[in-house]
Amino acid sequence: MDVTDRISVNSSQALTPTLSNNNQSTKVARTRRLRVPDKPNYPLNLWSIIKNCIGKDLSKIPMPVNFNEPLSMLQRLTEDFEYSEILDKAAQCKDACEQLAYVTAFTISSYSTTSNRTGKPFNPLLGETYECDRTDDLGWRCVNEQVSHHPPMAAQYCEGRGWRCW
Q: How far is CA 27 from each of CA 12, 18, 32, 98, rounded to the nearest angstrom?
């Protein structure tokens, strides 16, 4: 492991691995990124995009890369668990109708950020994986893998406090 390597971890639980080099040890503190960088503002020539689209199927039109969000579809799938406390409440319910209402509310909660989204995420590569561990703050962890390219399909497994989703 190189001293310059960094990973994202919860800042309240910073890891301090010990690296040994010629009987000397060096401690490296790892911290979680505090903010996502702003989207770069590239100039856009709309005419050059439109003239390449004449006579083409809308699904086959190449779009500039800056139209995409700076994340993978696997990351975006994991964002649905941001309101996992609703599933935590559903897991504690004894009444099946009340539990169904909580699960329905959780399903609808994934649309809360769609009004602010203008770009689409990048398509993951076949075999690409994404793991998100939020057990410290939200009590769940999730693992995703892109299992098919045509048609695009991802496998997802997430477990939290008293519930599992796959």
A: 17, 5, 17, 50
